[in-house]
């Protein structure tokens, strides 16, 4: 359905060349103008959530109060924590994350209000309550998923009321580098929303249109984000670079990259982190990551390889005419940055994407309910009917 406009989606809009805008503001502007955490160089996700919900930037006082409000909402029940800790160690973190969200669902304010029979015009208020709860809780949920999978038995800090979401998440996972706090702020800000048609946001919208509550909708969205053509491409992209490095070591040429890419294409596999359904130029989110690396990360082999792939791969993909966009997307670069700070469990990367995407998806659901958008139910057709239509020429 590319190019078919069929959704009303308030919080963001994607331009094929200029990339994403949140409430009409591009990422350059947001990174400059949205409030930053004290001592940090990047905007906080709390400020961006406020922007997505309301259309305006919060001032410092508002963002501080909002941070406190979200902190109060962030607590996970013992049942949820125990459930996550008892899931099989080998289960993919995205599956654990989605199960964790579902286990919070009995607390849905919307579901309770609906069953009490509140009028339709109040749906948005209960959706807002759930949406804020979800955006707050996913930070702790992600940390519990991470620690119960990779940090078993380790004593780690709990949430800290004085820290913003990103710093809290990084600290709860056992990292203390302040530059990593900043990377996480940038990461959570740039992945937050990508208009309404992405698999994740569209799924949430569709599920919520049946008045399934925001927990059900967000968990469903996460199952879509977990696909390799969508959010899982971030783990696949790092694996692509690491596999290349395993084969060629630290000395390689442009030709090695080109041959490696052609080999993958000849096996009908995709080059993860390249291509896009809408973008037709390099994803500005990828550029923001590269800029962060330039300022904060000493060059290493993987960063050199990432930059060199950016030079070589689009030229190769461009020769394959069916590929409409040969340029890198955000997933091409994020893993290299996370790995630099010691987050070396690729399977976890899409959970971070999911935490960020909660900000956009949840803000949008509030507006969908405020607009009282109807149940989503497009028409479908059988192959026989399609053939009939084609042969009758109608
Ligand atoms: C955050 C995000 O979700 S960003 C996207 C993350 N996903 C990836 O990076 C995975 C690699 N990329 C892709 O698979 C695709 O480019 C997608 C899924 C992102 C977009 O898909 P589409 O809109 O169908 O892209 P497009 O119209 O260019 O596809 C046409 C053909 O080119 C192929 N193609 C597109 N990108 C690539 C790629 N990176 N590597 C190999 N083949 C590709 C498609 O698989 C399709 O092949 P087919 O006709 O044999 O099925
Ligand atoms: O726009 C899309 O389809 C995929 C994407 O980049 C995102 O969801 O961030």
Automatic annotation (TrEMBL):
Q: A GO CC term?
A: mitochondrial matrix
Keyword presence, Disulfide bond: no
Please name the GO terms of the biological process aspect recorded for this protein, alphabetically.
carbohydrate metabolic process; tricarboxylic acid cycle
One short Pfam name that applies is Citrate_synt
Keyword set, alphabetical order: Transferase
* Keyword Plastid attributed: no
SUPFAM superfamilies, A to Z: Citrate synthase
The molecular function GO annotations come to: acyltransferase activity, acyl groups converted into alkyl on transfer
Recorded family membership: Belongs to the citrate synthase family.
Protein name as annotated: Citrate synthase
Give the organism's phylogenetic lineage.
Answer: Eukaryota, Sar, Alveolata, Ciliophora, Intramacronucleata
């Amino acid at each position: 359905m590319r190019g078919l406009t069929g959704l009303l989606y308030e919080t963001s809009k994607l331009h094929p060349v200029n990339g994403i805008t949140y409430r009409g503001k591009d990422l350059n502007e947001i990174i400059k103008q949205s409030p930053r955490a004290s001592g940090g160089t990047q905007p906080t996700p709390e400020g961006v959530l406020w922007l997505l919900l309301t259309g305006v930037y919060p001032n410092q006082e508002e963002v501080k109060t909002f941070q406190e409000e979200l902190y109060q909402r962030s607590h996970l029940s013992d049942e949820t924590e125990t459930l996550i800790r008892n899931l099989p160690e080998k289960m993919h973190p995205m599956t654990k994350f989605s199960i964790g969200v579902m286990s919070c669902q009995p607390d849905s304010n919307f579901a309770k209000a609906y069953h009490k029979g509140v009028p339709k015009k109040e749906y948005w208020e209960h959706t807002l309550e759930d949406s804020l709860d979800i955006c707050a809780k996913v930070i702790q949920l992600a940390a519990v998923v991470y620690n119960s999978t990779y940090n078993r038995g380790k004593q780690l800090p709990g949430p800290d009321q004085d820290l913003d979401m990103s710093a809290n998440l990084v600290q709860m996972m056992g990292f203390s580098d302040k530059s990593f706090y900043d990377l996480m702020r940038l990461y959570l800000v740039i992945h937050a929303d990508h208009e309404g048609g992405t698999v994740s946001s569209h799924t949430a919208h569709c599920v919520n249109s049946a008045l399934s509550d925001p927990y059900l909708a967000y968990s469903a969205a996460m199952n879509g984000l977990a696909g390799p053509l969508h959010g899982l491409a971030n783990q696949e992209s790092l694996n692509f670079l690491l596999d290349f490095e395993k084969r060629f070591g630290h000395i390689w040429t442009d030709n090695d990259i080109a041959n490696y890419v052609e080999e993958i294409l000849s096996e009908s596999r995709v080059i993860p982190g390249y291509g896009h359904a809408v973008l037709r130029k390099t994803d500005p989110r990828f550029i923001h990551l590269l800029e962060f690396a330039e300022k904060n990360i000493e060059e290493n082999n993987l960063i050199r390889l990432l930059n060199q792939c950016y030079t070589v791969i689009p030229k190769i993909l461009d020769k394959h005419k069916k590929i409409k966009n040969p340029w890198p997307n955000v997933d091409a670069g994020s893993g290299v940055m996370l790995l630099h700070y010691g987050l070396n469990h690729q399977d976890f990367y899409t959970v971070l994407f999911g935490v960020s995407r909660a900000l956009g998806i949840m803000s949008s659901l509030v507006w969908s309910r405020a607009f009282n958008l109807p149940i989503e139910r497009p028409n479908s057709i059988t192959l026989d009917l399609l053939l009939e239509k084609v042969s009758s020429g109608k």
